[in-house]
Amino acid sequence: MCPRRLVINYILVYKNIGRFIVKTKDSKVSSEFYLDNDAVKAFDTEFRDWEAYCSVLSSLGIPRYTKIKVLDIGGGNGIFMDRLLDFFPNATGVVLDYSQFMLDRNTHNPRKKVMQGSATDIDTLLLGENYDLITINVLLHHLVGEDEEQNLINITRCLKSLHCILAGTGKLVVYEQVYEGWLRQPSPGEIIYRITKVKSGAFSFLMKRLGANTAGVGVRFRSIRGWQGLFERHNFRSIHTGFVLEDKPSIFRKIFLNIRKVGSYLFVLEIQNAGARSENSHHPAYGVDE
């Protein structure tokens, strides 16, 4: 059997298994996108790609010694913000995270403030503020809900809110995991979301043992094109993009999850037209992976 036919058969089998799992009587699909403290602990780590990130910061055109305001959304333990404040020695920063557990891990810095809140409530939490640099690291794929429509609504709320607080010449830097598939449907992101959102005790336990710390809550990865489409629809223009690190998944993961390429990817964005709003940005169906 040719490799392409083998992949197709695996995906067809998966789709049938997925439908069975979701419809199982004892299974529940989570309608919330928050992780509990046990799951959050897995993210209490150092930022792994700082050197590559630092080289991108140097190319943003932001003078290092000016007094800028920085916001790190989903900044957790604050280690990444500490690095940013070292890089910009006259800057002040805010670490926003919904987890008080993670915020409590921050070390004191007179130029750093921590704030508890959700990425989908930025427009109310930070009303009237303006930031020269906003960073979002591996967060957007966690803004999940009970279905794909709610996933897109959550991301839309976040991205639209950023227009209110990003300075006219400011930069938004998004660091995300991207998944490229061999086949258009179902995409790797769809498969992973369908598996990780199932809130069945035994199944969730199995997924966690396999390394899925979001099991029972869900996670929604997208392709480069999928993320780019969402950013463009919300009037963000890419000025730099590229892989920071490419992962090497096992053959089993590649086949079962339809993975052609996966890795850490950087999107450096700016507001395409200050003051403008896309007439289609409210449409929740936009940005679904092909």
Structure notes:
The protein contains 11 helices and 7 strands. It is of the alpha/beta class and 290 residues long. The chain has one domain: Vaccinia Virus protein VP39 (Rossmann fold, 3-Layer(aba) Sandwich). Strands 3-2-1-4-5-7-6 form a 7-stranded mixed β-sheet. Helix 5 links the parallel strand 2 (92-97) and strand 3 (112-116). The longest helix is centred in the first third of the chain and has 21 residues, at 3-23. The radius of gyration is 19 Å and the shape is globular. The two termini are 26 Å apart. The model is unreliable at 5-32 and 275-287 (pLDDT under 50).
How many runs of DSSP E, i.e. beta strands? 7
In the predicted model, the low-confidence regions spanning at least 5 consecutive residues are: 5-32, 275-287
Order of helices and strands: HHHEHEHEHEHEHHHEHE
Average of the residue pLDDT scores: 80
Which architecture per CATH? Answer: 3-Layer(aba) Sandwich
Radius of gyration in whole Å, from Cα?
A: 19 Å
Q: Treating each run of at least 4 consecutive H or I residues as one helix, how many helices?
A: 11
* Count of the separate structural domains: 1
Helix content: 25-40%
Q: Which strand-content bin applies to the residues?
A: 15-25%
Give me the CATH superfamily: Vaccinia Virus protein VP39
Outline: globular
List keywords for this structure.
290 residues, alpha/beta, Rossmann fold, 7-stranded mixed beta sheet, 22% strand
Secondary-structure blueprint:
Layout: H1 3-23, H2 37-40, H3 50-58, E1 69-73, H4 79-87, E2 92-97, H5 100-103, E3 112-116, H6 122-125, E4 131-137, H7 148-165, E5 166-181, H8 188-196, H9 201-209, H10 224-233, E6 236-246, H11 251-256, E7 259-271
Parallel strand pairs: 1-2, 1-4, 2-3, 4-5
Antiparallel strand pairs: 5-7, 6-7
